[in-house]
């Protein structure tokens, strides 16, 4: 009885999020058409059957999200883990920021970054306004709005998509007999810490480490994560292409929504670094956008995403063979699965001998 009430609450909340996300996108696009029509990108119309396929795969994702919580893979409370008050207070800032975004789009300026940033600390590909975000990833203002913007973009399903890494990770770790001992999990490109929160719920006694290039995003992660019970994850500023960790120092590595924002060679370097820091038998889980090979029916949606948001490496990413890259750097037992707009890969570092 209690379970079905919770399930209905979860489904209702997700419906509400979805409606808010759709309404936000429609109203902001209409406003842009009115105020700054030249800033609007030309998009491909999405056909009714594609919309239906999106709805069906979203429902399937949410059903699975509920099921895995019920099976105890993570606490049911995680399904409701959202800073609602904070988001409500920040929502007006998303609107107030829109003219800045339109202006940059009109000027075709994708390198409008804060003046106080020492650009020599970052790879060139990083110094851009991904998604036309004000300040790129390089300010507290950007970090404070990021989660809310992602929720609006994905109609409230971002966390459900991120959580799809937990089951394959748990299963692989137990199979490799790594789940019972001391467990150290590194989340690469941890951003504001959403995946670290989920890992904390699913692996309550693991030692968690988050790494990101952005100090501002790490500060935001620190603010969110310090509200959780348990040990605060270690948060480290660094480049995923040159991880500041010793060889074979992690039992697991996760990496969520990073690969599509990297040029191909950086993508491969990140996978090679994940391999290096894993112990033999260690597990890598990746979550990122779906690709053309696994979700050809969503090709127009992927194309529109690239046109509307500044995503300079996305076109290359959606045609990239991540499995080939994983096996080239040494991973085995590579498995992929698709959930709504997200592709999940799980791979293992071979045991010695
Ligand atoms: C799209 S966000 C994803 C963040 C987070 N994983 C999530 O699920 O919300 C990409 C993140 O990758 C970080 N990033 C990009 N390139 C990086 C690199 N080379 N090394 C470390 N972090 C990087 C950015 O600072 C940003 O926080």
From TrEMBL:
Q: Which keywords appear in this protein's UniProt record, sorted alphabetically?
A: Methyltransferase, Transferase
Gene3D superfamilies tied to this protein? Vaccinia Virus protein VP39
Q: Which GO terms describe its molecular function?
A: methyltransferase activity
Q: Classify the source by domain of life.
A: Bacteria
The record ties this protein, via InterPro entries, to: Methyltransf_25, SAM-dependent_MTases_sf
* Keyword match Transferase: yes
Q: Where are the transmembrane segments?
A: none
All copies of domain Methyltransferase, residue ranges: 185-282
Pfam families xrefs = Methyltransf_25
| GO process terms (BP) | methylation
- Name used for this protein in its record: SAM-dependent methyltransferase
- Species of the source: Synechococcus lacustris str. Tous
